[in-house]
Structure prediction request, 282 residues.
Amino acid sequence: MPDTPVIEVTNLMRQFGDRTVLKDISFNVHRGETLVIMGGSGCGKSTLLRHIIGSMKPTSGSVKIFGQEITAMSEREIESIRKRFGMLFQSGALLASLTVGENVALPLEQHTDKSSDEVAGIVEEKLQMVGLRGFENLKPAEISGGMKKRVGLARALALDPELLFSDEPTSGLDPIMTAVVDQLTQKLTHGAHMTAVVVTHDMTSAFRIATRMIMLGHGSIVAQGTPDEIRNSLNPEVQQFINGQADGPIPLNLSQDEHEDHQQVKPRPFVSARHRFHRKTA
Ligand SMILES: Nc1ncnc2c1ncn2[C@@H]1O[C@H](COP(=O)(O)OP(=O)(O)OP(=O)(O)O)[C@@H](O)[C@H]1O
Ligand SMILES: [Mg+2]
Prediction:
């Protein structure tokens, strides 16, 4: 079936304890699309990505990648499907003890039997793509935050994935480097070669790369559509978010009652770490 969606998320729901972070999320992503997921900090974007890549299991609902149900897979089965996609984590998630080059080489060493010369060639090519050729031998602690992000992207692209997940790929990057990373995403998805799911708060970047956008809020999909549909949305939450306005329907500081309503979280009294330590050792 040529038109099977690359990703199908159906009625996805996730609770942590008695707190519902994702509820009734459904959407599809087709080959060659760049889906941008946006929404306020803490609304569940990274959690949604973790469910799509199979590193978290939903409370209920279904996630299919390349037509296969990932929620029911064993870690070994997920591992085999992971060869087909790359993931750039929000934190970069580089291994501190390895050099930049070794970090980028990691997926190639885990999933292929390429020679060390071939691996070195691919590492050089991917670092070149993100403007970091020549930085192979530095350790993550010796490079800047934005550089770590780009190394994470080079690593996510190491296996030439059919599907790329990027969580905040341009946060911490200057406007020029943001444009470079955006151009790279556009180039890779051109001609439907790759499909991308990108979480971002950067609206310039979002509208530049998206072929479709989803806005999350209160654990649900508030709006979805093409960039033009989102830009012209009559939903005041969407307008507040995309225009970055402090005043609007999205609450900034929830009162305790509202907080419980929205998040179903039971407040706990704050205890300082020092206090806890004293209590434990007393
Ligand atoms: N393992 C976990 N256990 C309990 N709660 C969790 C866990 N992971 C995430 N959460 C909660 O889920 C909510 C959504 O978190 P998530 O990291 O997905 O937000 P986000 O939309 O990516 O935010 P940001 O834009 O700041 O990165 C948060 O309130 C967080 O506390
Ligand atoms: Mg996040």
Summary: The chain has two domains: 7-84+163-174+188-281, 92-160. Residues 16, 21, 39, 41-47, 90 surround adenosine-5'-triphosphate (ligand 1) (CB under 6 Å). Residues 87 and 250 are 30 Å apart (CA to CA). The longest strand covers residues 19-29.
